[in-house]
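Lab notes, practical 5.
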Amino acid sequence: MILLLIFLLSIQNTMLPAYATNTQKFYARIMQEGVILYKSPIDVLDTENVFFELPRTYFVELIDSANQQFFMVNYMSFTGYVKKECVQTIVGTPKKPFLTDISFRIYAEPSRDMRSEPTTSGGSLSQVTYIPLMSKNLTFIGKITGEELVSGRTDIWYYCKYSADRDYYGYVYSDFCDQLTPILDNTESVTYTSSPVFSTPQQQQTAIPLTDKTTGIIIAILFVPAGIFAFMILKNKKILKQEKIHSKEVVDY
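Output from the prediction step:
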């Protein structure tokens, strides 16, 4: 009886609902120029709230609907937010979702300074690393409007990866960069569809969980015969003891 009680109580915590998750991936095409990958789902064009512009005709992987205006998305290794009105959901997975294999070179001093934002206003706090002149191991990821570092030149900065002793990510001023690999449109033919409905995991029960009420009933049912069983053992011991006393085998103090 006692072993049965312990077993039933132990399986109570294992009879919990299991959750089914949707592993299907959804992608959306970037439909226009100047689509921003935001760091938060708010429409604020501040250097602290933007990553870079996403290349038109390429894709983002949709993760969730952040709010009425934004999707949460993945682009390369970056998780951010895009405006729903700027992308169109497609059927299936594209063969080349992201822009890849785009490189460039730095040939003059003003562009050597990689920064964590497209401006020098942060001083030494925003410096990521210095890049040697004529470096070609730079991977272009995106571009963004920032500080016009040299008056009368340009305000475009490249967001990039610099591979040296490790991988560095940051912005470099584009005016003194050259040999940028031509960025071609993604001409892959796709089928467009309506935006997906993101749902929370559905609860699927693998067994009926024991409620507190059910547990109480089981305990009550099991304790009745267990109590009777214990009473019978004690009674038999007392009878045996009385018999031994009566036969003078033991002395009752």
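Observations recorded by the TA: Confidence is low (pLDDT under 50) at residues 2-21, 202-210. Residues 47 and 248 are 100 Å apart (CA to CA).
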